[in-house]
Write a structure and sequence with these properties.
heterodimer; A: 191 residues; mainly alpha; B: 177 residues; 8 helices
């Protein structure tokens, strides 16, 4: 992330020097800071909401039922998660939220999943393979129906905007599988 | 389409309803329990705030500098070579960085080229199958304080690139074959 962040800022400053957009650049720093506060306030609300709900899932014992139902699937992918670990439930809930396009629920549940995965981590500053796999699946964004996209297409007069669903599902699934494949390839090559 | 939309609206209410009623009949103190869980949310939010700030400032600066139009110029040659609309470059460059900006770019593409153009269709598939990668990375890594990311970033970047190529291939096969 150090390289990514450096590159973004480095390119921004150089390019705006050449483009003569230094004023816009300066303004953008403060706009960025403002947007971060707004997003964080919003995130704070929904993270608390979903952490409250997951607490109820834990206390009621529902967590064991969910974990048992999805354990075979999750443990087949994430080899190092022991049986009945809370990470199984949080990963399951995050995947379901992504699947149904519930972005607002997916992020808080994903954070919970990362924290649960972190409890299995011996070196707290270094990513485990399970965490990488979880993040890669999340950034591949397996989603069934892209509502906002269909909305825009039909707003501008596409007669059959929902035609886009088929290619999108196909593309999202293949790209998720490709992404997982690339991750496993990196592991094999770098070992 | 309406039925699907209706079902998608039902998911969260039903999910919460089922969980809370199940817990209530299991004699869990649902209210106290919810508040207890929600309390942790503030800590999590405070912990990820600096990471969100860092990524937002960098992305906004990048947008403001006009670097995106440079990026488009660089890739324009490649697009012409493969006979592809160059609009898809802007959507693939912005999608990993900012969700709201990507939605804006997508709307522009649809407005300018029509909803059934090749550019709109490819952009629509990219919108649906790609994620705001760097935002997700910043939040998820920040939430647990990870510093050493090993080979995660290159994997994500390569995966995003493959996703774009895949979207182009699939749209071509689906609509123009």
């Amino acid at each position: 992330m150090n390289t990514v962040w450096f590159l973004l800022l480095f390119v921004s400053v150089i390019v705006s020097l050449i483009n003569g957009r230094l004023e816009e650049l300066t303004k953008s720093f403060f706009e960025g800071a403002k947007a971060a506060v707004e997003i964080s306030l919003f995130l704070g609300g929904i993270i608390s909401l979903w952490l409250g709900i997951t607490k109820i899932i834990e206390e009621s014992g529902l967590i064991y039922r969910l974990a048992r139902a999805f354990q075979p699937l999750i443990c087949a992918l994430f080899k190092k998660i022991p049986a009945n670990h809370p990470a199984i439930t949080s990963i399951t809930l995050n995947f379901l939220a992504n699947f149904f396009g519930l972005g607002n629920a997916a992020t808080p549940l994903g954070i919970k999943a990362m924290q649960d995965l972190q409890t299995l981590n011996n070196d707290k500053e270094t990513l485990t393979f399970e965490m990488m796999l979880f993040i890669v699946i999340n950034t591949a964004s397996i989603q069934l129906i892209p509502f906002s996209v269909i909305g825009i297409l039909s707003d501008f007069g596409s007669p059959k905007a929902s035609l886009i669903v088929g290619p999108t599902i196909l593309s999202t699934f293949i790209s998720a599988i490709l992404a997982i494949g690339i991750l496993f390839l990196f592991r094999r090559v770098l070992k | 389409m309406n039925i699907v939309h209706f079902i998608s609206q039902l998911i969260i209410p039903i999910f919460i309803f089922l969980i809370v009623s199940y817990a209530f009949f299991k004699k869990v103190k649902v209210y106290d329990c919810f508040v207890n869980g929600a309390k942790e949310g503030i800590n999590v939010t405070l912990r990820i705030f600096p990471y969100v700030l860092a990524i937002f400032v960098a992305v906004k600066a990048f947008q403001a500098s006009g670097a995106f139009s440079w990026g488009q110029e660089i890739f324009r040659g490649i697009c012409n070579f493969f006979n592809l609309p160059f609009e898809i470059i802007s959507i693939s460059l912005i999608k990993p960085l900012s969700g709201s900006a990507a939605l804006g770019v997508f709307t522009d593409i649809v407005k300018n080229t029509g909803p059934d153009s090749l550019a709109s269709r490819i952009a629509a598939v990219i919108m649906g199958s790609a994620e705001t990668t760097f935002y997700v990375l910043a939040i998820y890594l920040g939430a647990v304080g990870i510093k050493k990311t090993r080979y995660l970033i290159p994997v994500c970047v390569i995966a995003d690139l493959m996703g774009v190529i895949l979207a182009i291939i699939i749209v071509k096969l689906f609509f123009y074959n």
